[in-house]
């Protein structure tokens, strides 16, 4: 099923293979910056407002470049079985939001490379157009299409997170070491190195040419540098935290769960806690034994004692969000469980607890964020 459109992400432009494509509400800012930067430069050579019109056309070409780049990521991910929630173009370029799915180093690298590959394809289109005898303005736009997309592809392939090249490095280190989270930390540190080198180069290059960087250049380099440094730092922190989680076994943080039949009363649910010391949650199951949701213990405790036998357990049922049931065995590391607790998809609510079933499909307990945090202390 295709993801539903949600206006909070911006203006819905359309869909690619069922994936919603948005223009974020911050994107017009970069469009205005492009027009005001290149418009005056072109105004001297083009009469009237033609210079600004060409600059606006260039801004639209940049938008197309971003969307093709992100569509490359999205389609590659979809081809490997990963869920894709949306594509968004915004002030900082764009991003593709992936859902749950088990990835391997090879598929992770493929998804990362697909974005820059889309830019190189657009650069090829621009180059082919330049082989035709075009009028001056179309030729200028074709050159801009080719040059900017080569630049975007090369920049994104620099070997450090959060750039695509960083995800390739992460995939390679992951393949060699077998430790995905160590690979993330390594790629994050390389991202910091790449950020420093890029900032130094972009500011020093005008000085080496006998000039000095403009105020606009300094501001943009500072913003891009801060964005890259923040992304690299987040990768280091996330990888370090995930390595710690991987040392925790599911059995260490697993608590027993009271299983309540769908036809049971509130009294039966409470009796289940008396028979199962240590249980903190009760799950309601349908006649086939499929989990339906957790019971609201506060609401259950508030039921008058004389009403417990006649109030159905379904009256205090809380239907949890998707991803609340996780398959894991007690000896597995807690990474998958923590991913479910944190929410697989950007914007998905963090869960207080998830229900765990083993490889045979048996309900074996619950894991809460609080218990995981306690195990990491």
UniProtKB/TrEMBL annotation:
Organism superkingdom: Bacteria
Chief subcellular location: membrane
Membrane-spanning residues: 12-38, 50-68, 108-130, 136-161, 181-203, 215-233
Bilayer topology term: Multi-pass membrane protein
Binding-site list for Zn(2+): 69, 73, 164
Note accompanying the cofactor annotation: Binds 1 zinc ion per subunit.
Positions of the Peptidase M50 domain: 58-130, 142-180
Compartments in which it is found: Cell membrane
Keyword terms, alphabetized: CBS domain, Cell membrane, Hydrolase, Membrane, Metal-binding, Metalloprotease, Protease, Repeat, Transmembrane, Transmembrane helix, Zinc
Cofactor: Zn(2+)
GO terms under biological process: proteolysis
GO MF annotation, one: metal ion binding
Active site positions, chain numbering: 70
GO cellular component, one term: plasma membrane
Family stated for the protein in its record: Belongs to the peptidase M50B family.
Xref: PANTHER family: MEMBRANE-ASSOCIATED ZINC METALLOPROTEASE M50B (PTHR39188), STAGE IV SPORULATION PROTEIN FB (PTHR39188:SF3)
The protein's name: Zinc metalloprotease
Organism name: Candidatus Phosphoribacter hodrii
